[in-house]
Amino acid sequence: MAYAMLFLVVCGGLSFTPPCIASVQTPTLSSCSSAQVFSVSAVSITNAKVGQTMIFAYSGQLMTSLANSPELQFTMTKKASGDVIPCISDVGSCVYKLCGGTTSIERQIGQPWNNECPIPASSYSSSLSFKIPSLAAFFIGDGNMHLKVAAIDGGTVVGCKEFDFKVWLS
Fold first, then answer.
1. Number of other residues whose CB lies within 10 A of the CB of residue 27
2. What biological-process GO terms show up in the record (predicted)?
């Protein structure tokens, strides 16, 4: 309890400087597919720091139901070089099942539709929280990243957005 009070006093004195507030990024989204069955309208990224728990929040619209083994394909690259960041501890360039997912992130993604197919057409807003593994520091260079998120149903891209964001190393 004493440490919590000390933290609040120090943060009050520092007046909105890290580590007292989490950094929030609201990247500009670009379409990377002509198909727009799934359209993301907003993304925010909070606390994108190696070794910390990051929150990825989104809102969007699914125009038709998805039922043919839908998945999200994340392709994360270094902005400067285009080098692909591997999937490490379920974070990075990973593929996530949207129905029947078994990993923590897949269950978080599928929570709005109870992790079951078909996924009904609707508006969705949700968030994912996950720890950025310390090992990521060896792969992300200066932390300036590019993320492409493709929604796939039956092997066909049904929506895609991409954007730049920053991961802080310390």
1. 17
2. ganglioside catabolic process; lipid transport
